[in-house]
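Anyone? Bumping this.
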Amino acid sequence: MEIFRYSFMVRAFWAGIASALVTSTIGVFVVLRRMSMVGDSLSHAALAGVAAGMLFGFYPFYGALAFSILAALVVEMVRNTFKRYAEIALAVVASASMGVAVVMVSLGKSFNSDLFSYLFGSLMAVTEEDIRLITVLGFFVLAAFHLLRRQLFLLAFDEETAKLSGIPVNTVNTFFSILTALTVALSVRVVGTLLVSALIVIPAAVSLQLARSFVSALLISNLVAVFSVVTGLYLSFYFDLAPGGTIVLIAAAFLFAVLIVKRKAG
Amino acid sequence: MGLPVVELQNVSFSYGGPRVLEKVNMKVEAGDFMALIGPNGSAKTTLMKIMLGLIAPDEGEVRLFGKNVRSFRQWHKIAYVPQNVGQINLSFPATVREIVVSGLFGRGMTLKGKALEDEVRKALSTVGIESLAAKLIGELSGGQRQKVLLARSLVGSPEALFLDEPTTAIDAESQEEFYGLLEQLNKEQGLTVVMITHDIGMACGMASKIGCVKNGRVDVHENTRDVTEAHIAEIMGYSIKKRRHNGR
């Protein structure tokens, strides 16, 4: 296929599929734990990290990683303080991160075009270094999920029973937050910080509509995300569209189609 | 007689204000069926959470199977059915089998293959829901969901079962069936049962001990005949006819 003759597109597909697998896996747990906005808050932090990288001259990806992990730890800390109002943590982190990002962008007036590629995702911008980081981090996150899948299932279904089963709930929660932060950071290159949250939530939402078991929920979420990314990248290449937006629109169309068909069916 | 399943010594607790439990001393022995009764807000759930180490008391000591609850790690010996059958996320995409298997997670049990399948089948058949194994939790009635939570707690053959108002969200017929199942597990399999309930009839008819929780105190009656209608009225704050479970 012509599209694969371009090395930047091969890199974009590689990074996109890796991001899709990771976001859609974590997304099922995020949605079931009623923390759908966590991706949004962490992506704001990732944007602040990207801006910091550009302002202080280090690789923006590292900035996104560091800031989103820090934000995840702050979310967990604030969530433990306001146990009954968990969303306070997400709102505080999102607002504070956006404040940091805006101040840094205003200080470094010359990096608007670079910043745009992190905001909305970019096909051309995925470098070999990005690919190496995305592959290593993606593998780490998926392996960690595989190892923790039982604990995370029980935590999502019934946190109190999880505690009584000897699961170190606070430790697993903190680790889960860090994994979510890694997922957000590694996905911003292709999808962009503004839309990564959608790639976490929408495939999981589709899977909740269709799944007949937990295993199938994970599989459906993975398939919807990979399909959306592959189709979105393909369309954005041929029609010169922003990849992040195209990917998210396809996933959203998938969700609405499923909702309409299910409503008509009964 | 072996070590008590649960032992509380001088346990006190408050949520920041007045104490809701004051120097509570009580024991649950192996094979007991203890019903905890008391008016709303009398700290029954708090008491059970303290027994299980989910809440740390301000004072006193809690021992589970002879071990201080803070250092207790024999999770396979205990199981808990929470009060939340009505709050289960009905869109949770898990089958009955997957939920029952999750009862083994984190409890130090590493069953695999046929041993795992046998254990799950045994738990499902004990509560009579083998035919529901492939159903999603959201497709079940309240009574069936409660049985799923019971099956999940029984997988791995615990020695003691703690239940917090397990029948609040289910109809009368399912309640009767559920109580029958608990009685069978207690009498035939020797399972120790500690249950918070508002069903005084069940408590008097089925339990071997009744713990009356009120005003921060727990009075344990080792003979349910001691629990008169006048005493129940005093504890619950309203008059009630003492009836026997299943007409007994």
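Late reply, but here is one note on the structure posted above: Chain A has one domain: 2-265.
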